[in-house]
Amino acid sequence: MSCALKSNALIPQAIVAPTTDGFRYAEGLPLFKDRMRVIPEAADGLKAIARDQAPCSRGRNREFRGVGASKDGAAIPSGRDGTS
Prior knowledge:
Layout: H1 13-25, H2 29-32, H3 43-53
Helix pairs in contact: 1-3
């Protein structure tokens, strides 16, 4: 069973900020390194903070996949034409 939010649910800043920064400092590093200050060594810690703040992780031992990931970890297309 996974943590699912309703499509109209508000995602708290305590989850969004460390999740986006964790992405920028790790997987998004090639894209963001010339645009902003990035701290690659902080990525794992920021992702852990986001997981700890996720509603599905409070009091339960469940994996938080975050926005844009399916059950198998594959990216979910975000564009109207089905592209990421």
